[in-house]
Design a protein that fits this description.
Number of helices: 9
Radius of gyration: 18 Å
Helix content: 40-55%
Oligomer: single chain
Number of strands: 7
Structural class: alpha/beta
């Protein structure tokens, strides 16, 4: 298959095109423990992303970093601390800040809450929803938890055996699923999930 971003085949980008693509597309990883360098402070982690993508002005780097810490709900004192000094939910907030500090338009979220406690999952999901609106982001959100998908997604693609078997708007897919695999997934959902995803909101 192909991966197209704004009509461009991402497999055919040259070096300059790849640099621009990587700045525009960032990723939040599943494991908040393994995805952060334990030898770097939070400031190092965020600043290195800006340096790699040639944000050369020191004041601009500091401004962006301070803004992102505020946006993800971490204090400025976190900048001098190391990942081991934070909880799993706080580490995922650092990972989110690292992804967004470059001001991407698309963020790939690879099971970003599956390694977290349920109460912390709700906090991170609510944060992602808020950040999506604040920064005008698009998410490619990968998850096996259908209640999370139901709460967060605008459009849903269902995969089975490595292939997309069904897609549609989030608001209608749950009521009008056509593929047998999609219907079996929906039938396995716990009772109480309503049309607005209130189950997850109540977890907070």
């Amino acid at each position: 298959g192909q991966v197209l971003l704004r009509g461009q085949d991402t497999s055919r980008l040259d070096r300059r095109g790849l640099a621009a693509y990587r700045k525009r597309v960032q990723m939040i990883f599943q494991d908040p423990y393994a995805s952060l360098n334990p030898r770097h402070t939070v400031n190092d982690i965020l600043e290195s992303a800006l340096r790699i993508h040639r944000v050369a002005d020191r004041q601009e780097r500091r401004r962006r970093i301070a803004h992102m810490l505020d946006a993800v709900g971490l204090p400025q004192s976190a900048l001098a601390r190391y990942p081991s000094e934070f909880s799993g939910g706080q580490r995922q907030r650092i990972g989110i800040a690292r992804a967004l500090v470059l001001r991407p338009s698309l963020v790939i979220c690879d099971e970003p809450v599956s390694a977290l406690d349920v109460s912390v999952q709700a906090q991170i999901l609510n944060l992602l929803v808020d950040l999506k609106a604040e920064f005008n982001l698009s998410y490619l959100f990968i998850s096996h938890d259908l209640s999370v998908v139901h709460y967060l997604a605008d459009r849903v693609l269902v995969m089975h055996a490595g292939r997309i078997v069904e897609e549609g708007p989030n608001a209608t897919l749950w009521r009008e699923a056509r593929h047998p695999y999609t219907r079996s997934l929906i039938e396995a959902l716990p009772r109480g999930l309503d049309g607005e995803g209130e189950t997850l909101r109540r977890r907070a």
